[in-house]
Amino acid sequence: MRLAMIGTGYVGLVTGACFADLGHEIICIDNDDAKLARLAAGEIPIYEPGLEELVKKNVAAGRLTFANWAGADIGDCDAVFIAVGTPPSVTDGSADLSAVYAVAAELAPRLKGYTVIVNKSTVPVGTGEEVEAIIVRGNKEADFDVASNPEFLREGSAIDDFMKPDRVVVGTEAARAETVMRAIYRPLGLSETPIVMTGRTTSELIKYAANAFLATRVTFINEIADICEATGANVQDVSRGIGLDTRIGQKFLQAGAGFGGSCFPKDSLALVDTARKVGRPTQIVEAVIAANTERKRRMAQKIIQACGGSVEGQTLAVLGLTFKPNTDDMRDAPSLDIIPLLQQAGASIRAYDPEGMEQAARLLADITWGDDPYSVMEGASALLIFTEWNAFRLLDMQRVKSLLTRPLIVDLRNIYTLPEMVEAGMVYYSVGRPAVA
Hints:
Elements: E1 2-6, H1 10-21, E2 25-29, H2 33-40, H3 51-60, E3 64-67, E4 79-82, H4 98-107, E5 115-119, H5 127-138, E6 144-148, H6 158-163, E7 168-171, H7 175-184, H8 186-189, E8 195-198, H9 200-231, H10 235-243, H11 264-277, H12 283-306, E9 315-319, H13 335-344, E10 348-352, H14 357-361, E11 367-369, E12 382-385, H15 397-403, E13 408-411, H16 418-424, E14 427-429
Parallel strand pairs: 1-2, 1-4, 2-3, 4-5, 5-6, 7-8, 9-10, 9-12, 10-11, 12-13, 13-14
Helix pairs in contact: 1-3, 4-5, 9-11, 9-12, 11-12, 12-13
């Protein structure tokens, strides 16, 4: 089938490349000509394992092309996917839908035969209805339906998530649109992927409900971790003990510095905004947002206390800046809150991240950047681990000790075991586990 993907950001690029790899003919449309030229040359503007190879393969095969609006012909497309950003409003946290609506207006006069317009962007309830109205205003002769098809891609494993999804959700009340969407995803049916066909409004709500629930799990286990630290319990054992209950499960029960990234923070805020607008405020999600914000402040205080109650005049070595490993995404990363608090307390920061330093340098000031994990440690008072990159999991502890002025590690991701830290002779503070002193 011939499909158009509007937007070549994280969702649009991954989805377009994966659809092309399934055999569809994809045109990715963007208004950034410099970015399009890079993409056509096989240069990927984001870090996602396997994406560069996938794009190059499908460009070479002729299944994946890139164009701006002037050079794009979508008249013969079976479906057009809207995959543009919906960032939170700075005033009330609601989703900013201006890019989605601008795409709808641009699409309207270009539609010819029957086309399914698919909202792939994460959008609140009622967005499909407004997109439909915009297109009708722009082209009263257009033959189309608007469907919802939320994405559930995890950064760092997005290609695998697309090719082997837990489920595909499609929201539409139109039989023709359902037929088209089933045909688009038919290749995934060979692996018996569940396809949830539902109403458009329900589909729009599923994405927000899923992310808010996962954010709640993360926040819950972080609060349990605080109780563990106060009582001497071990949060990893607690997580395993409750996670083996099949009603609960083990995923998203890893204690840490709080959630971040492109989805959980903004989608939780957008769900709260929707709930308020319909007169059904969601107290749980509001509490999750507040607790996660406080979590980052508490992590800064945890570090300061581990450093003897003050970091004034101290140099601290930070490993990991992105909100999770295997991505260069810095959106709402805990490091963006924790590092400025440490700097305000008088600390100097040296930092290293395998992929995120270019992005981080735009968002953090007065940082000394390292070339590798060990380069930031020499003469530092403590080593702080913010992101669980594999490159940090097997550090040479004797070398670490020789570089630091004292053998102190604060690990906000629990990537080391307590016995190995005892054996290495480190002073070690982690999350929700007894300290090694």
